[in-house]
Amino acid sequence: MTRDSQKEEELETVKRYLEVTGLSGTASINLKKNDPPDVFIDMDGLRIGVEVTRYHTKERNVSGFTRTAGEEAWKEIQDYAWEFAEKEPCLFNYDVFLRFKDSLVPNRKETEGFVKEIARKIQDNKAQIANEEMSFPCDESSPEILKKYLKEFLVCRAQCKKNWDAENFLFRRLGTSDEELCEIIKNKIPCQTKGVQENWLLIYGGSELSRMFDIPWVEKIDSFIKFNAKLKTSNYDVLALLGFRTWLRWTKKNGWEKIETE
């Protein structure tokens, strides 16, 4: 994401927040590069400085991958598999489903060899692959690269277009934690900008697993002792958590409340 596209995304996030909450302010990007806040809101004679940050977790799976690193490695495999199949017509019309071992993902240098070994297995067995899935266990007789990373992979003829997919092997939760939110707010301390009467912070989720989060209950977020203590001593007047299902808002005056988004 370029800096310009990031700024546009931040602005659209603020506009969406204003729309959903029924506030009538006008939002504009801060044109001073590298200077906070990200966005200004002019509303009812007030100028509000809004810091906007996209949530991402540093949680690691059992093999030490962060969500982001695991997703990037998996995307490398998908992209290379797509390009490889474009050059190999005999492999074009197959769906492949991977079951990874111990949450391990091949690194970038291993991607080519990994995909080619799977392609070789498909090529050698294409006469046997019907419309139903065919399982290829990855045991001691399998190529090193496959038995290192996979329990098995499944292959069937694609009904529409080819697809490479995998189990949700990276992570199991979409929530967040007291510690993660403390880390975010620590790095987003509002500055004293001239002419700004209030400081807001919006934390929003993305579509990738590493950037998705949700806290469905006010009681849950209210139980994050460290995070709430930091909020109360911060210079923020408003903080909003824009999850993938639920939006929550904290104000210095009223504490936490759920935002109705529908």
Describe the structure.
This protein is an alpha/beta fold. It has 2 domains: 3-59 and 173-259, Trna Endonuclease, Chain: A, domain 1; 67-166, no CATH class. Helix content is 33%, strand content 24%. The chain contains 7 helices and 11 strands. The protein has helices spanning 3-21, 67-87, 108-125, 144-149, 178-186, 218-222, 225-233; strands at 26-29, 39-43, 46-54, 94-100, 134-137, 150-157, 163-166, 198-204, 238-242, 247-251, 255-259. The strands form 2 sheets. It has a 7-stranded mixed beta sheet. The protein has a 4-stranded mixed beta sheet with strand order 5-6-4-7. β10 and β11 form a beta hairpin. α5 packs parallel to α7. The longest helix is centred in the first third of the chain and has 21 residues, at 67-87. It starts with a helix and ends with a strand. The model is unreliable at 168-174 (pLDDT under 50).
